[in-house]
Design goal:
The chain is of the alpha/beta class. The chain has one domain: Aldolase class I (TIM Barrel, Alpha-Beta Barrel). It contains 11 helices and 8 strands. Strands 7-6-5-4-3-2-1-8 form an 8-stranded parallel β-sheet. Helix 2 links the parallel strand 2 and strand 3.
């Protein structure tokens, strides 16, 4: 399987809890026929019921890669009704998994203990975690943006140090689904701090990327991706609009 680190800037579509069999088939067909989207540095994070469908499609003709939106904190299969293990995700062709997304932290109270277990489970099955960090509006206004993000990283840094590839997605919580976007200066500042932190903390042999996620759309993606500190984008709502998403993928090719 191709590595997402071997091509251009990463673009990860997070479809969240959206989709149907008909919609997924139609969308994957469109993406597979577009040269900018049908690349190994493009990832589609689908709802769990559609991962096998995506795997079957990818085996036939797709260059993009499959990601999952979540994974069980239980490392081994067992009597855990409703859970989906890392082994299962790997079995249906997943390359990567979102971990620590702000919606999981907010709605499911996922903290250090659960996130650490998920990272360990993914490592056992050689799945790439997309580890999400970010601050609330109140934390930013209080001057605690970096302190908040750094703490989220420090909580799992011992586990990240063990990975050959590390992807961190910075998502200012106040900019997710609100239409608000951090200024380019804000993005540049936070990503610079993140890169310094990771370079100082990770082994020299590790490969790392820092992504931006926070109301990324077709009309701002090119400017965000042009920042040298930004290694890619995590796209939420705009990824469901195939016209917008194709433009974002095209913008990633220019970098």
């Amino acid at each position: 399987m191709s590595s997402p680190f071997s091509a251009g800037k990463l673009v990860i579509a997070n479809w969240k809890m959206h989709g149907s069999v008909t919609q997924v088939r139609a969308a994957l067909s469109v993406l597979s026929q577009d040269s900018a989207c049908n690349q190994s540095h493009i990832m589609i994070a689908l709802p769990t019921p559609y991962l096998l469908l995506a795997n079957e499609w990818q085996q036939q003709q797709a260059g993009w890669q499959i990601a999952a939106q979540d994974v069980s904190s239980f490392a081994e299969d067992g009597a855990f009704t409703g859970e989906v293990s890392a082994r299962m995700l790997a079995d249906v062709g997943c390359r990567a998994v979102l971990v620590g997304h702000s919606e999981r932290r907010q709605y499911f109270a996922e903290g250090q203990q659960v996130l650490s277990k998920k990272l360990k489970a993914l490592a056992q099955h050689h799945l790439l975690p997309i580890f999400c960090v970010g601050e609330s509006f109140a934390q930013r206004e209080a001057g605690l943006a970096w302190q908040t993000v750094e703490q989220q990283l420090d909580e799992v840094m011992p586990l990240l140090k063990e990975l050959p590839q590390v992807v961190v997605a910075y998502e200012p919580v106040w900019a997710i689904g609100t239409g608000k976007v951090a200024s380019l200066a804000d993005v540049e500042e936070m990503h610079t701090q993140l890169q310094k932190k990771l370079l100082h903390s990770l082994p020299a042999c590790a490969t790392m990327r820092v992504l931006y996620g926070g109301s990324v759309k077709a009309d701002n993606a090119e400017a965000i991706l042009a920042l040298p500190q930004v290694d890619g984008v995590l796209v939420g709502g705009a990824s469901l609009d195939l016209g917008q998403f194709k433009k974002i993928c095209q913008a990633s090719e220019k970098r």
